[in-house]
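User: Could you write out the 3D structure of this protein bound to adenosine-5'-triphosphate? I've included everything you need below.
Assistant: Certainly. Input first, then the structure.
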Amino acid sequence: MSTADPPRWPSIAKDAGAFKRSPNLADPAATREGFRWSDARGWLDGLPGGAGLNIAHEAVDRHQRQGRGTRTALRWIGKSGQRRDFSYADLSAATSRFANALASLGLGAGDGVFLLMGRLPELYAAMLGALKARSVVTPLFSAFGPEPIATRCEMGDARLIVTTPELYQRKLRALRERLPRLSHVVLVGEAPAALLEDTGVHSWASLVDSQPDTWTIPPTPPESPSLLHFTSGTTGRPKGAQHVHEAVLAHAMTGRYALDLHDDDVYWCTADPGWVTGTSYGIIAPLVCGVTSIVVEAEFDAATWYEVLERERVSVWYTAPTAIRMMMRLGTAPLAGRDLSALRFMASVGEPLNPEAVVWGQQAFGLPFHDNWWQTETGGIMIANVPALDIKPGSMGQPLPGVTAAIVQRGADGHMHPVGPGIDGELALKTPWPSMMRGYLNEQARYDKCFDGAWYLSGDLARRDEDGYYWFVGRADDVIKSAGHLIAPFEVESALIEHPAVAEAGVIGIPDDTVGEVVKAFVALKPGFEPGEALMRELLGHARKRLGAAVAPKSIEFRANLPKTRSGKIMRRLLKARELGLPEGDLSTLESDEKK
Ligand code: ATP
Ligand code: MG
């Protein structure tokens, strides 16, 4: 791929002076060599009496059993600034009450428990409590409209949903007839009497609060279903990825090695539990690692976020490119005078992290962002920039211990085979690993297509360099073919956002009779810049200089914002469908209400 070489951004070297404390993964190469998943099992407890492995036990009850019950597990910061701390002992009791509540309704192992609410403390108690009861948990974005809620509840056989009176009234009440299997609705907070009269509707206070504080987790074979997660829907209709309790081994390993969690850390994952990062890394991994996790109910706002980082003395921060780009829009001025000295490790996931953003981290926070890669299907981080490794900005890092990755291409025998460094191909992972999805709900054929022999095929294109770093090229569906070149939208977008006027860019291929496809860019500008002919010419010139004429966009369209999924990813497929007047496909996860 012509846009790839050579890396334009110098490496960020990590020497001993780069760390505020010594990393858990001090020698990645040696640990990778010697690591076995049974090592991670050894860090955990297992259910008493050899009764299996349960995520909620490892995340919550284990700490209490081992004398860490008084440590703060969750610090919840409400929309109007209220602050509530929950110790591991509090969380153990709260989750047991919810498990008892489920049992009182005759629900338990294998039953679908759905969560539809903002980041309220009850969400955390319900998710972990349902896991204690061996129910199968599905979190939904509270901003979903009625239709995506209904289809997911139907597909996932929801038996009980926890939500708020307001969301119930607005989005769910009218759907109840369509969802005969949804027997119970639990409303969090003050509920109008009329709602409580609906069949199967309970208030959290009356159903849960009075339950016993103790609960014995039933035997949980590691293969027991745990979570059903719908993918972000960036490329089309979301898939329901089925996970099991054994995934906790990967949460333990990645929390320790990829996020470098030490047990006295104050950690903040900004992702909403409505998608997998907010669950695996907003709830499970930090608790398994025994840290204090910050939960912020409010949506993104740079000033509030900086306030949280400073006041709570956050030490490890896990966020996403879209949020980082929003902060970059505002420059470093809002950070002036803030004491962020507690911060020691920053990571990002969800989309490719533009090299510009990695480096901006250093200017703004004195620390680079560490990009890492995974997907709903992998259940946990697979490839990461870890503290002890130099960062090559634009690379997503190296496979973690226990993870065997490769770049594969289809050979003459019709099967996928690893290729050497510098060659583009599909990013594949050697099966099995503990947090691997065990199926796509009701879509066996689609699941089977993800595998070739021992390889899981991710659907993403990437490249490995001589040093073993992985570089994201694009989603297999997004790559542009123009005049014999393969063009990765991400590299064109990254070149554009190097320009001081550009906040965000989305790049697509437009069919063309002569060259196959021509590159078109959609650009959102930073405050203080106005769209216009002169700026467009300047950006086209900048891109040509950076990328060469064959790869640079031929046209640019200015947009106030780019369409994104609820989990914050640019939806290139939608830019393309709208440009070409094609069907827009599934829009259930579109962030705004701009659905035509
Ligand atoms: P769908 O599969 O429904 O289209 P999705 O793939 O966006 O949605 P997720 O599982 O939430 O759903 O996202 C995983 C995908 O996000 C990865 O396969 C990859 O394409 C992209 N991604 C995640 N992290 C990174 C990263 N660090 N660099 C590049 N791409 C990333
Ligand atoms: Mg995907």
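The CA atoms of residues 228 and 242 lie 5 Å apart.
User: Perfect, thank you.
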